[in-house]
Specification:
- The protein is an all-beta fold and about 270 residues long.
- The protein contains 1 helix and 19 strands.
- The strands form 3 sheets. Strands 2, 4, 5, 8, 9, 10, 12, 15, 16, 18 and 19 form an 11-stranded mixed β-sheet that branches. A 4-stranded antiparallel β-sheet has the order 1-3-7-6, with no helix packed on it.
- A hairpin with a 5-residue loop joins strand 4 and strand 5.
């Protein structure tokens, strides 16, 4: 049986486009690598205007999952939902790489009614029930756009040598598949990542990379990239430190009743000296 903290999913407002919004979601570990027999790592989940500063609000009702190095579910401890951040602890005691993440998906629709007024489904703050779609959307709806969206926020922690069992994709939504191991990033060489959308290479994904501590700089210093025909992007890190990586994808290859497929991704990575 899977063991995870189970609450409601993020609201649509919190999990909207990571790349284009002023407020961004991120998951920050207190440590990305452990030695010896391991130990505890604390994680902060927050929404902010600057990385990694608690200056906005804490996501409420989160669903956090921890995938251990042997690809089994591990367990989070001491969940705390504060005003500015949501925190939890994970005991890192198995050799290899852990993936810590929150992910969700769902349908939403918008349209124009016969009276010209805009309609939305599901209502603000509510979770979509696909079974209600047929009756929720008017038969005479104009300019109907139905979006199948996926959202993922994640980070990685390794005890000892890096491993890959926990890094396998689920083939659901927009996912990052590391070519370069996420806990083996260095300033001296570019890192290579592949993005998948529902298990297939995602071409043209918009990727943005920002170093933490932006409040101490005159500008965020963002770097922008786009995945190639194989869904691959190469990131050149400017210097050591913690980085936020946000990605956004959209196409019209959705499964009915959806007309649009979209994915948002947010990852936190630490870059070290080679």
């Amino acid at each position: 049986m899977k063991k995870f903290i189970q609450c409601a999913f993020f609201s649509t407002a919190v999990m909207a486009s990571a790349v284009v919004q002023a407020h961004n979601s991120w998951l920050l570990p207190s440590d990305t690598s452990k030695g010896g027999k391991g130990g505890w790592v604390t994680f902060d989940l927050a929404v902010s205007t600057e990385f990694f500063t608690f200056d906005a609000t804490a996501p409420k009702g989160v669903s956090v999952q921890i995938l251990a190095p042997d690809a089994t579910q591990s367990e989070a401890q001491n969940l705390f939902e504060g005003k500015l951040r949501t925190s939890f602890d994970v005991e890192i005691n198995q050799a290899g790489t852990y993936k810590i993440f929150t992910a969700s998906s769902g349908l939403n629709a918008r349209w124009e009614g016969a009276d010209g007024k805009r309609g939305f489904w599901p209502p603000r703050g509510a979770k979509a029930d696909p079974a209600e779609f047929a009756t929720a959307v008017p038969k005479d709806a104009k300019n109907l756009e139905v979006t199948q969206s996926s959202r993922r926020i994640e980070t990685f922690v390794t005890l000892g040598a890096p491993t890959k069992a926990a890094l396998k994709p689920t083939n659901q939504g927009l996912e990052l598949v590391p070519v370069t191991h996420p806990n083996d990033l260095a300033v001296s060489e570019p890192s290579e990542f592949m993005f998948l959308i529902d298990g297939k290479p995602a071409v043209g994904v918009k990727v943005e990379v920002i170093e933490g501590g932006s409040r101490y700089r005159l500008s965020p210093g963002e770097q922008r990239y786009e995945t190639d025909k194989n869904g691959v992007v190469k990131i050149q890190w400017k210097k050591t430190g913690m980085y936020w990586l946000g990605a956004e994808y959209k196409d019209n290859k959705a499964t009915k009743p959806a007309t649009v497929r979209s994915g948002n991704y947010s990852g936190t990575f630490e870059v070290l000296v080679d």
